[in-house]
Each structure stands twice: as C-alpha cells, then as structure tokens.
Amino acid sequence: MDTKIIFKTPRLILREFISGDAVNMFELNADPTIIRFTGDVTFRSVEEAKALIQNYDQYKKYGYGRWTVIDDSSSEYLGWCGLNYNKDSNETDLGFRFKRHVWGKGIATEAASACMVYGFNQLKLSKIIGRAMKENKASIRVLEKTGMRFEKEFDAPGGKCIQLYKAK
Questions:
Q1: CA–CA separation, 162 vs 12, rounded Å?
Q2: Which residues pair with 95 in a beta bridge?
Q3: Do the beta carbons of residue 68 and residue 8 sit within 8 Å?
Q4: Is residue 110 situated within a structural domain?
Q5: Phi-psi region of 156 (alpha: psi -120 to 50; beta: other; left: phi over 0)
Q6: For a Cys staple, 167 with which of 18, 34, 69, 127, CB 3.0–4.6 Å?
C-alpha cells in the first residue's frame, strides 16, 4: 500500500492513515489521560482500530481528513492531526491527538498550524473551526496559536465546550 504524504513541516510528516497505524491508534486511545477531554471511548481491540482506518472515507469523499503525524527524524508515530468535514453542519474542523511524551514540545502547534495553512492555501477553505472541552486549556491554547479566536460556548456530552474559528 502506498503511503500518501500530505505535507512535511520542519519536524513532522503528515500522511494518510494506513492499516499499520492501528496498533498506535489503539494505544493512543487506550490512555485515559489522552482521551479524557474527547468524549471518545477506547477501542476494544487493535482490530477495531484497524476497522476504523479501513472504513475512513474522508479522503475519498472530501479530499482531506485527519492524518497520521510521524517524527521526521526518527519515523516514530506521534499521533494524528488534520481537518474533518462535517456534512451536517457544513463545517471543517481542526482536530489532533498526540502521545503524552510529546506534549509541551510544540508538536501539536506545529502540526495544527500547518494543517491550517494547508486548509486555506491548498484546499481553499474559507473557515476552519476548532472545538475543545472548556477545561482542556492546552488544546484551546494550541487552537489559539493557529490564529483561531473564540466563537461560542456550547453544551456537549461530557460538559461545556468552546468553539473557536479562523476565517481566511
């Protein structure tokens, strides 16, 4: 299977998901600290993570999606970051999830900022949103560092959320 690289940053490679990412995605979602503010549940197995990857249709439907993030120097799987189109709301949101050992090292900001540039320049999007639980100060800071600003607060399963946005 060919690995489709979307783009590189100074430290990172962002590429489409591949089946080989399943173990890493399973481990990422198995960490309760990582998924604490996501509303997601853990995968029951690596096979369930693999099925998510195999059924992920955002690339074919919309030409973009969430992407695997790899450390360019070590080839280590760090997490995922990318854009997701929601047909119901006609909005594209920026999302990310990373292994804990890279938190606080600018990885999320570097990947998220590059996704914003890609979304506006290559995909010609006019607006990108980001959502985070109100208590998730670190994710809100990352969204703000991409240039997003507060748009609204709303209730979601698990608590209050904040939506930020940036328009081109």
A1: 28
A2: 82
A3: no
A4: yes
A5: beta
A6: 127
Our count of domains for the chain comes to 1
Cα–Cα distance between 160 and 76 in angstroms, integer? 34
Q: Is residue 111 part of a domain?
A: yes
The answer to whether residues 47 and 38 touch, using CB atoms and an 8 Å cutoff, is no
User: Both tokens of residue 8?
Assistant: 């590189």
Report which of 24, 92, 85, 76 is spatially closest to residue 53, judged by C-alpha positions: 24
Please report, to the nearest 10 degrees, the dihedral formed by the alpha carbons of residues 35, 43, 100, 5 taken in order: -110
CA distance 63 to 55: 15
Rounded Cα distance between 28 and 21, Å, is: 10
pTM: 0.94
* pLDDT per residue as tens digits for the range 64-110: 999 999 999 999 999 999 999 999 999 999 999 999 999 999 999 99
* Per-residue pLDDT tens over the stretch 117-128: 999 999 999 999
